[in-house]
Amino acid sequence: MSPFQTTLVSTHNQEHGFGRRGTTWLKCQNALAFSLLFPFQLAPTLASLKLGNDVCQFIQSKYDFTVNIKWPNDIFFNGKKIGGIIANFIQTQDEGAWILAGIGLNLGRPSPSELEELSQLQAAYLTDSIVLNDEDDHQVALELAELITQQNETTEASILTEWKKNCSHIGRQVIILENDQVVSEGTFLNVGNQGQAIIKTFDRIQEVWSGTLRIRPIF
What we know:
CATH topology of the largest domain: BirA Bifunctional Protein, domain 2
CATH superfamily of the largest domain: Bira Bifunctional Protein, Domain 2
Order of helices and strands: EEHEEEEHHHEEEEE
Structural class: alpha+beta
Number of strands: 11
Largest sheet: 6 strands, antiparallel
CATH class of the largest domain: Alpha Beta
């Protein structure tokens, strides 16, 4: 018997939010910030990819906007980051597998001071047309959580296929950094069957499992 049950915790106000490797995450007005604990039976490295797919599907179906994924776990709209995902794997004693996911999404217009701070962080928001009143952010978080946790026929192949459709930089020139050091530079070919980046460098095909990806501009 698992010691856990599927759990959602959302908040209207968040202080000291953080992203991958402790980077700052600002919870703005008209934004979502929530954590979700749910069972996951596939390779844990695929969880971020599945979550990214679910966010893209949710925003498309609820708000009629098409957003993209930047490897490994950022949500982009019109070339600007509007959301991020952190997925932590938990292995229980009964061999059950669980994911504790943190998701932040900037949906509507922030306050003027928040907008300035987002600009400094090179981030943005989805649209002026979304206004989250009172408990709206909790309700929207619940709707997205229900999509993430619904029991369907999700497979490794379906996650990878959908993620490639949502990715904005397949075939683009990229740089991947770890602790401000370049670990790979070349063409982003694909993701592997466990979510790793497949990069074609000048002399080989390289697999990269973690890091911060930057897309080279097209001139």
